[in-house]
Predict the 3D structure of the following.
Amino acid sequence: MGKAIVVTSGKGGVGKTTTTANLGTALALMGKKVCLVDLDIGLRNLDVILGLDNRILYDIVDVVENRAQLRQALVKDKRFDDLLYLLPAAQNADKNSLNPDQVRAVVDELKPDFDYVLLDCPAGIEQGFMNAIAGADAAIIVSTPEISAIRDADRVVGLLEQYPLAEAPKLVINRIRQRMMQDGETMDIDEITHHLSIDLLGIVVDDDAVIRTSNNGEPVVLDPKNPAAQGYRNIARRIEGETVPLMNIEHQKVGVWSRITSIFHRNK
Amino acid sequence: MQQSVVLKASNDGYELIFRQAASFETIMVDLKTLLDRLQVDNTTNKQIAFDISTEDRLLTAEQTQQVTQLIQRYSLFSIHKLAADVILTADAMTMIERDTVHLINQIIRNGQVVTITGDVLFFGKIHEGGVLRATGSIFVMGDVAGALEAGYPDHNEAVIVSDLSTVPRVRVGELLELVDPAKMATGTNVVYINDIQALDYQPLNQLKRVRPKLFIQNGGHI
């Protein structure tokens, strides 16, 4: 029986969908069978980040309204030999097209066939959020080091205390700008974790490649050398129960020679 | 056999005692007999208001109505007070809740409102956007970055005892305001409603002066 994990944040734009795509991919790379469920009804884009947007026939609303079987709606990611699937969101519906019982039923149907079911939660704390947490056993709260994102994450942790899941929520701090954090311009990892008083699952640095790769429909986690990818891979390993030390995010000061060589690299 | 209804006279007037060992039906029969006899004996035409004690028995609303109706049939008699020596468990629990200082050690997060009946001694954390609301007073030993509301909704005698340096908003009774740094003392403050019905702040050492009643317990001074 698999485990359903909801990826949520409260605030929009902190990287829930990117995190869902990359963690799902990282778990698939580790040989786990994963299903990603896009619950952002009306504004789906998990399919775009995975490069699966041209292969959608049916969506989750078709499934709950019995227009399609669950397995007909699942989109297989061919890069991962039967390990990674996506259940897309509907584009021509809204969050009220689903209710928590329907989502729970879909997730319960998926769990026996997968090791992990990752639920991509929409922004906000309304119906879409309630739907997403209904089927989940655990939650990953994604926040950036911005105060507004941390406040919203705090709100979401409070709501999860009100509707407790089987496991306590865990925190992922996303889009860390090393230099700003080091200079004290944003809260640091310890401050954020202490403030929210929940366990830290992992950190992901801000990297241009995240946007570049998602534009190409290839999650950044596929590049093992990329620092953001390493962050996601570490989180996936921790989800699997491994003990992985927190990656060093100290900003390296760029020397004169590095700058000169980087100019040549750029011009290549 | 012991009577089910006992009539006692004192300086305060007449008291009717419904013995708890007797059934309500027996009491009603005996009460009628007693009142009939009293009416005959009452030659002065003086009005009598009874204090009724039901001992360790709580009458239901229906039973109370039956007793009231029976007594109202006699023009000279009325009920001054109807009381029992006991109260409902639920009422007792409410009283305990109201009169207890609750020790709270939890995180109140953004958007959460924790409401407590009675006084609160708070050891936890209130995050920005969280609200701790008590019907009584609030005494804070933890970290507060959210709002404190004491005496909610209208108990104006309540106080807030807290360091206010990180508290954005306070409410006592019906008055609320954004914390005014100009009024704030260093360290722990007492927020209360003063004689001119305005929110005022005092240093902690003034607590006994502004609310002496906080330090008086049942039975007198300690």
Q: What stands out?
A: The radius of gyration of chain A is 18 Å.
